[in-house]
Design goal:
This protein has a domain at 36-181. A hairpin with a 6-residue loop joins strand 3 and strand 4. It is an alpha+beta fold. Helix 3 (150-178) packs antiparallel against helix 4 and helix 4 (183-195) packs parallel to helix 6. The chain is built from 6 helices and 6 strands. It is globular and about 55 Å long. Helices cover 39% and strands 19% of the residues. Strands 4-3-2-1-5-6 form a 6-stranded antiparallel β-sheet, with helices on one face.
Amino acid sequence: MRHLPAALVILSAAVFGMAQQPSGKQNARPDVVAPASSVVAETAKSPARYTYEFTQPQFYVRHILIEHDANGRGKITFERLNEEVSITEPIELSSAAASRIAALWQSLAFLDSQENYQSERQYPHLGTMRLGMEQESRKRTAEFNWTNNKDAAALVDEYRRAADQATLVFDISVARESQPLNGPKLMEQVESLLRRNALSDAPQLLPLLKDISSDEHLPLIARNHALRLIKQIEKQSKAK
């Protein structure tokens, strides 16, 4: 597995927002947020590890794997269509995203449950999701392509946003290093994800966007777009 050059991916992370869902989807973003103390307590109890995996060979991002600890630190690996080399980058969930994800794992009581999250209705064309947790000698993985469990669906949505943000940051890093003409298109992608509330933690992108706004290697249109995005994110953050 080869690592491509890129700046540290800051997550706030199949793909995966890349997995389109049918109309009327039930995967709404939860408002529940676990207090940071619960995450710390989980870490003190034992070094739990969490994984999210998505696979759909026909999607542009055909495979993604997020592995992290209770503090949201770990790595993301993803593979793209028609590319033989997978990409692995460090990942760090924002405190807000890590708290939301921790709350959902706790709601599922994942290691204590034997629930089959797969719904009766099958959507294999959307890809296969796998949730995994390991703590001390206990380990469990659950696989499904669609679920009616609201917490499992919300957890997948959180990881999808995290993956989308991570792959986007990676692409921006590559553009800044060797493909500056891709800058304008990538700023459009940031805006699209922001408009659809499809980013794990938009404020986490502010330092990167500020760097882009003054990066003379990128086209002026990309730099100006970054400035507009900064104002948009700051405005949204103040409104919350």
